[in-house]
Amino acid sequence: MDRGRLYRTEAIILRRSDFGEADRLLVILTPEFGKRRVLARGVRKIRSRKAGHLERFMQTSLLLARGRELDVVSQAEVIHAHPHLREDLARSAMAHYAAELAEAFAPEGEEGRDLYRLLAETLDRLDREEDPNKALRYYELHLLEVAGFRPQVEFCVHCGERLREERGPYGFDLGRGGVLCPRCAPRFPAVRPLSRQALKGIRWILRTPYPTFRASPISARTLEEIGEVIARYLLAVLERRPRAAAFLDRLAPPERPAGEAGASS
Fold first, then answer.
1. CA nearest 154: which of 165, 143, 146, 142?
2. What are phi and psi of 210, to 5 degrees?
3. Which residues does 220 contact at the CB level (< 8 Å), separation at least 6?
4. Using H for helix, E for strand and C for coil, what is the string for the chain?
5. Where residue 250 falls among pLDDT bands split at 50, 70, 90?
């Protein structure tokens, strides 16, 4: 093979599909070239040496050969396997959701180091942390920031006044991409109410390194509210709901009836 056609890159396997009799088409995320579609020849054969290095959600070192239509995987060596993302159903669903969002926002053929780093760190966290929900909320907000859709949480998106910590409620305006102050929010009854705790949580996530955020005592209810707001905002930005989000909803535990929260067995 002509060595001038070869190049090496790290990659995260976002998605894969069967191609032909023994090949697979991979959608990968790389730091240097953003999102790429590449061909892995022969990986569905039993004796393929590359197959175990090209599972979904793996972070892998690839040697690629430039092709006319699709570049071809020449060598693959796993860097981080993330085994729990394939063994644990809930973690797998979260990883599918994270990968689907990355694919939706990633530039094709353009450098995307910040997005690559964010996804790599998030998959590590989803794989090993006891409670991965914080990692997912952190990922969503920082993904929006990397992609240029950071929600406005410092100034009211209607009147422009700095948002102060007030009792609220605030509002989240999907069209304007940010928060309405307690004086403007009642003028737009269609917007989603936003509690003071959720506003503080969103600000904290956007301003804080992940280890500090992970150690913070943010409540499960506040995390849930932030997740609901960001889900609506992602729908407005992408103009579709991520497919993996519906599966995550089915895995969520059912809400307890009122008055049952303190019951003991």
1. 165
2. -60, -45
3. 133
4. CCHHHEEEEEEEEEEEEEECCCEEEEEEEECCCEEEEEEECCCCCCCCCCHHHCCCCCEEEEEEECCCCCEEEEEEEEEECCCHHHHCHHHHHHHHHHHHHHHHHCCECCCCHHHHHHHHHHHHHHHHCCCCHHHHHHHHHHHHHHCCCCCECCECCCCCCECCCCCCCEEEECCCCEEECCCCHHHCCCCEEECHHHHHHHHHHHHCCHHHHHCCCCCHHHHHHHHHHHHHHHHHHHCCCCHHHHHHHHHCCCCCCCCCCCCCC
5. confident
Give the CA count within 13 Å in the CB-facing half-sphere of 194.
33
Q: Is 41 exposed, middle or buried (0-12, 13-18, 19+ CB in 10 A)?
A: middle
pLDDT at 36: 95
How many residues make up the chain in this entry? 265
Report the predicted TM-score, pTM, of the whole model to 2 decimal places. Answer: 0.90
Give pLDDT tens digits for 36-76: 999 999 999 988 888 889 999 999 999 999 998 999 999 99
Six token digits for residue 106:
């990633």
- Record the tokens describing residue 159, joined without a space: 């009147």
Phi/psi of residue 231, nearest 5 degrees: -60, -40
Please state, in angstroms and rounded to a whole number, the distance separating the CA atoms of residues 261 and 248.
23
- CA dist 203 and 109 (Å) reads 32
**Residues 142, 148, 152, 154, CA torsion sign:** positive
Query: Any idea which residue has 């976002």 for tokens?
Result: 14
Task: State how far Cα 188 lies from the chain centre.
Answer: 30
Contact in structure between 53 and 82 (CB atoms under 8 Å): no
Q: Which two tokens stand for residue 259?
A: 């008055």
Q: Is the separation of the CB atoms in 97 and 234 below 8 Å? A: no
